[in-house]
Design brief:
mainly alpha, two-stranded antiparallel ribbon, 4 helices, 2 strands, 6% strand
Length: 107
């Protein structure tokens, strides 16, 4: 898929550091040569940020789901185990760690 051509003379953000710059050619994506080289050498800094945020959101969602699982009564936990056997197995291991005191200790 080809990228759309840019309008010469318009202002846009640099793909590497997000600074505004004036477009000089139709394929101009970076504010300066150092940004172009850094982007191609190290990749997009926003991609790394996005993957980090996705990982943190998944961990937070798992923690919330675990708390909800722990708060369920026995019958509801059994229904959850039938619907999600892999996740319930992991939650059972976490519950055992919490009950025995071997889980992670927060500061």
């Amino acid at each position: 898929m080809k990228e759309p051509r840019l309008v010469i003379g318009s202002r846009r953000r640099c793909d590497n550091d997000g600074r505004f710059y004036t477009v000089k050619t139709e394929t101009h994506r970076f504010c300066r040569d150092a940004c172009r080289k850094a982007f191609h050498r190290y990749g997009s800094p926003f991609l790394q940020l996005r993957t980090c945020i996705q990982r943190e959101v998944e961990l937070a969602a798992d923690a919330i789901e675990f708390r909800l699982f722990a708060a369920l009564d026995g019958g509801a936990q059994a229904r959850y185990r039938q619907a999600n056997p892999k996740r319930a197995g992991r939650f059972d291991e976490q519950l055992e760690e919490v009950e025995t005191g071997q889980g992670r200790k927060s500061a």
